[in-house]
Automatic annotation (TrEMBL):
Classification via SUPFAM superfamilies: PTS system IIB component-like (SSF52794), PTS-regulatory domain, PRD (SSF63520), Winged helix' DNA-binding domain (SSF46785)
Protein name: Mannitol operon activator, BglG family
Domain PRD: 307-412
Keywords: Repeat, Transcription, Transcription regulation, Transferase
InterPro entries (UniProt xref): BglG_antiterminators (IPR050661), HTH_11 (IPR013196), PRD (IPR011608), PRD_sf (IPR036634), PTS_EIIB-like_sf (IPR036095), PTS_EIIB_2 (IPR013011), WH-like_DNA-bd_sf (IPR036388), WH_DNA-bd_sf (IPR036390)
Keyword Repeat: yes
GO molecular function, one term: protein-N(PI)-phosphohistidine-sugar phosphotransferase activity
Domain PTS EIIB type-2: start-end pairs: 414-503
GO biological-process terms attached to the record: phosphoenolpyruvate-dependent sugar phosphotransferase system; regulation of DNA-templated transcription
One matching Pfam family: PRD
CDD domains: PTS_IIB_bgl_like
C-alpha cells in the first residue's frame, strides 16, 4: 500500500499517543497546519482500517487508535516503526527507570538510562535519588559503583512485588484486563515494557486459570476487588516466570492459621498451574500462593469478630480512641470504620512483618488534602502499634477510612429543629420531606410554637419553621412544609458551611494542641498574650471602604497608598504574592496579598454599590482583603486566619459588612475572637 510521508507521520503520532490526541497536537508535532491534518484524516483512516485498526473520535478529546494488540503490531511493522516509548511526566519517568532496573541483573550505565528515556544525565541522576527513596520500603538496595553503573539488589520476591505495584500505579484496571484478555493496544508504556520482558503469555494463562477458579467460588468472587484480583494474578504469574527460569521462591511464609477456604483454593490454583506450565511447585511456593491470596482477600465483615485476634481488636479500639481525642469528634460508634480498619490493618501487619510493601497511588493527594489528619494517624499508629512501623503508603489508606467516617459524622451531626404553628402535622410533613431529600441530616426535634420558647437554640445548627419566628439567629429559615427547590438549596448551603466550619475547627484544634503540648504553661500564656495583642490591633483597625474602581488590585493599592502616604506604584513593586477567590455560599470575594516591608497584617473590606462579576460568571458585592507581611509570625498568621474564619462563617458579620457597620463588625469579630482565646485556654 502506497502512502505519503505525511500520512505515515500522522499515523505514527496517533499510535504513540497515550490515549486521545487532538488535531492541533498532531499538527504541532509534524509541523503542519491543522487544516492539512484534517485534509489527510480520511486517508489515515483508510490505511488503518486495512490493518484492522479503527480511528475513534470524541468531541473535545480528539482521536485514538483502537484495535487488537496483534493488529497494532502489524500496523507498526508496516510503518517500520520501532517500539519507541515516550515518557513526559517526571513521576512516570522515575517509575519507568525503576521498572527497567528491577529487570536488570548487571550494572547499567547512567548514560544508557538517559538514552533509553530520552533525557539528560543530570536528570537521570536526580531520578535515581527518588528511585532509592522508593526502595526504602522494600528489602532492596540501589548500588552505585563508579565506572560500572547502577544495580538494584535484593530478593526476587521483593523485586516482583515492587514491579507489580509500579504497574498497577500507572495502568488502569480496564487496560490491564484488556491486555490479559489479548485485546486493545499497547499505547501504555508500562504495558509495552512488560510485553517486551515476555510476561504477556504467562500472565494471560494465569488470568485464565485463576479466573475460572474464582468464578466457581461465588463467595470468593464477591469478596475480591478488581485491583486485588489483578495484583494476585500478576504476583502469581511472576512467581511462575521465576520458577521456569530456574529461580524458584525459597522464602517460607507463615500460613498455618489461614482458614480452610483459602487452603482449598490454594490447592486448586497450585494443581492447575502445575498442569498448565508442566512444573512442580515447592512447599514454599504453595505457601506464597496462599499468603498472597490471604493478603489480597477482602474478608467477610460479618465474620470479623469470630475469627479476629482479640489483641488486635483492642489495639484498633485504642487507635480510634486516640484519633477521637486528637480530633475532638466521636468515631468509636462507627461500626463500619472499626471493621474496615480491622480488615486492612490485619493484612497490613502481615505485609509489614513479612517485609512486603504496597504502594498507594493517592498518597500525595492524601498528604495534601488531609494534612492534619495524616499527622494524627501517623502519630497514633506509631504509638498504638509501637512494634510495627507503618510506611506512609499504608498510613494513607488508613487516613481515607477515617476521612469517610469523619465526613459521615459531620453530616449526621448537623442538628435541625423543626417548628410548626400548632398541631404536629406540618412539622411531620416537613421532617419526612427533609429525610427524603437529604437523608444524611438529623432532625433532632419537632416542636410547636408554644414549646419553642423552652428550647436552647444554641444546641441546633439550623432552625426550620413553617411560620415566621422573630429571632436574631443566623441559622434560621422560614420554609414551606413541602420544601421548594430554592429552600432545599439554602439547606444544602447551610450543610456545606457547617462541614467547612467543623473541618476548620478540627484543623485549628489539632494545630494549637500540637504547638501547645510541647511547651510549658508559662510559654502557653505568653503565646495567648501575643495572639491577643495582634488580634486587638487587627480588629481595631478593621474598616469598610467604598469601592472606587472595579479592579480588585487597584482598590487594594489605593487604600494602602492613602494609609501609608506612599505611591501606588511603589507599593505594587513590593507586592510579593496575591490570590483571590469567591467564598462558598456567599456573594463575597476573599483577596490575599503579601507585601515586603509591611510592619503587621491588615484586614479590611471593600463594598461595591453594584453587583460585580468574576470571570467565571459568579457575582459579588464585597471583597475581604487580608494583607500579610512577607514573613509573618506564627501569631500573626493564626490571628488573621481565625478572624477570617469568623467573617467567612458568620452571616451576621457578612450582613454588617454589607451595611458598612464598622462598629458592629468590630464588636462581633471581637466576641468571636474572645471565644477563640477561651478555647485555647481550655486545651
Amino acid at each position: 500500500m502506497l502512502m505519503s510521508n505525511r500520512i505515515k507521520e500522522i499515523i505514527e503520532v496517533i499510535l504513540n499517543s497515550r490515549g486521545y490526541v487532538t488535531v492541533g497536537e498532531i499538527a504541532k508535532q509534524i509541523e503542519v497546519s491543522d487544516r492539512t491534518v484534517y485534509r489527510e484524516i480520511p486517508e489515515v483512516m483508510e490505511v488503518m482500517r486495512g490493518y484492522g485498526v479503527q480511528l475513534n473520535t470524541a468531541s473535545k478529546k480528539g482521536m485514538v487508535a483502537v484495535g487488537s494488540a496483534e493488529d497494532m503490531r502489524n500496523l507498526r511493522s508496516f510503518l517500520g516503526m520501532k517500539n519507541q516509548i515516550y515518557i513526559v511526566d517526571p513521576k512516570e519517568r522515575v517509575d519507568f527507570i525503576l521498572l527497567y532496573l528491577l529487570h536488570e541483573n548487571d550494572y547499567i550505565k547512567t548514560e544508557a538510562l538517559a538514552i533509553d528515556n530520552d533525557t539528560s544525565i543530570p536528570t537521570v541522576r536526580n531520578d535515581l535519588k527518588k528511585v532509592k527513596e522508593q526502595l526504602s520500603g522494600y528489602d532492596l538496595h540501589l548500588i552505585q559503583k563508579k565506572g560500572e553503573g547502577i544495580l538494584i539488589t535484593g530478593s526476587e520476591i521483593e523485586k516482583n512485588a515492587l514491579t507489580v505495584n509500579t504497574l498497577l500505579n500507572h495502568v488502569d484496571e480496564s487496560s490491564l484486563y484488556q491486555w490479559l484478555n489479548k485485546e486493545g493496544d499497547l499505547s501504555n508504556p508500562f504495558v509495552r515494557r512488560m510485553e517486551e520482558y515476555g510476561y504477556h503469555h504467562v500472565m494471560t494463562v494465569c488470568h485464565r486459570i485463576i479466573k475460572s477458579i474464582v468464578q466457581d467460588q461465588y463467595e470468593l468472587s464477591t469478596m475480591i476487588k478488581d485491583r486485588e484480583y489483578l495484583e494476585y494474578i500478576l504476583l502469581i504469574a511472576m512467581m511462575i516466570d521465576c520458577h521456569k527460569k530456574g529461580r524458584p521462591y525459597k522464602k517460607e511464609f507463615e500460613t498455618e492459621n489461614f482458614n480452610k477456604e483459602e487452603q482449598k483454593i490454594t490447592r486448586q490454583v497450585k494443581k492447575s498451574l502445575e498442569k498448565e506450565f508442566h512444573v512442580m511447585l515447592s512447599e514454599q511456593e504453595e505457601q506464597y500462593i496462599r499468603w498472597v491470596l490471604h493478603v489480597g482477600m477482602v474478608q467477610d465483615t460479618s465474620r470479623v469478630y469470630t475469627i479476629q485476634n482479640h489483641l488486635l481488636d483492642a489495639k484498633i479500639y485504642n487507635f480510634i480512641q486516640y484519633v477521637e481525642d486528637r480530633m475532638g469528634i466521636q468515631l468509636i460508634r462507627d461500626k463500619e470504620l472499626k471493621e474496615s480498619l480491622y480488615i486492612h490493618i490485619d493484612r497490613a501487619l502481615i505485609r509489614i512483618r513479612s517485609g512486603m510493601c504496597i504502594s498507594n497511588p493517592l498518597i500525595e493527594d492524601v498528604k495534601r488534602d488531609y494534612e492534619e489528619l495524616f499527622m494524627v494517624i501517623r502519630e497514633g499508629a506509631d504509638r498504638i502499634f509501637d512494634g510495627d512501623f507503618f510506611p506512609d503508603d499504608e498510613i494513607g489508606y488508613l487516613v481515607l477510612y477515617f476521612a469517610v467516617s469523619l465526613d459521615n459524622v459531620m453530616k449526621r451531626s448537623f442538628r435541625i429543629l423543626v417548628v410548626c404553628s400548632g398541631g404536629m402535622g406540618s412539622s411531620k410533613m416537613l421532617s419526612h420531606r427533609l429525610e427524603q431529600e437529604i437523608p444524611e441530616i438529623c432532625v433532632r426535634k419537632e416542636v410547636s410554637l408554644i414549646g419553642f420558647g423552652q428550647e436552647n437554640l444554641d444546641e441546633y445548627d439550623l432552625i426550620l419553621s413553617t411560620i415566621p419566628l422573630y429571632i436574631d439567629k443566623r441559622n434560621y429559615l422560614k420554609v414551606s412544609p413541602l420544601l421548594s427547590r430554592n429552600e432545599l438549596e439554602q439547606i444544602h448551603e447551610a450543610i456545606k458551611r457547617h462541614k467547612y466550619k467543623t473541618m476548620r475547627k478540627i484543623t485549628i484544634r489539632e494545630k494549637e494542641q500540637r504547638q501547645l503540648e510541647t511547651r510549658d504553661h508559662i510559654e502557653s500564656l505568653e503565646k495567648l498574650r501575643a495572639l491577643m495583642d495582634v488580634g486587638l490591633r487587627v480588629i481595631k483597625r478593621f474598616k469598610v471602604v467604598q469601592a472606587k474602581e472595579k479592579n480588585l488590585k487597584n482598590n487594594l493599592l489605593r487604600i494602602l497608598s492613602e494609609e501609608s502616604g506612599r505611591q501606588a506604584s511603589e507599593l505594587d513593586a513590593r507586592n510579593r504574592k496575591q490570590q483571590f477567590y469567591l467564598i462558598p455560599a456567599t456573594d463575597m470575594v476573599y483577596y490575599e496579598a503579601v507585601f515586603s516591608q509591611m510592619s503587621e497584617p491588615r484586614l479590611f473590606a471593600v463594598h461595591f454599590e453594584d453587583e460585580q462579576y468574576m470571570s467565571s460568571g459568579e457575582k459579588y458585592t464585597d471583597v475581604i482583603y487580608a494583607v500579610y507581611p512577607e514573613n509573618p509570625s506564627e501569631y500573626e498568621k493564626n490571628t488573621l486566619n481565625h478572624v477570617l474564619e469568623s467573617v467567612i462563617d458568620d452571616k451576621d458579620i457578612q450582613h454588617l459588612i454589607h451595611k458598612a457597620d464598622e462598629k458592629g463588625i468590630r464588636q462581633w469579630i471581637g466576641y468571636r475572637f474572645k471565644q477563640y482565646l477561651a478555647e485555647l485556654l481550655s486545651l
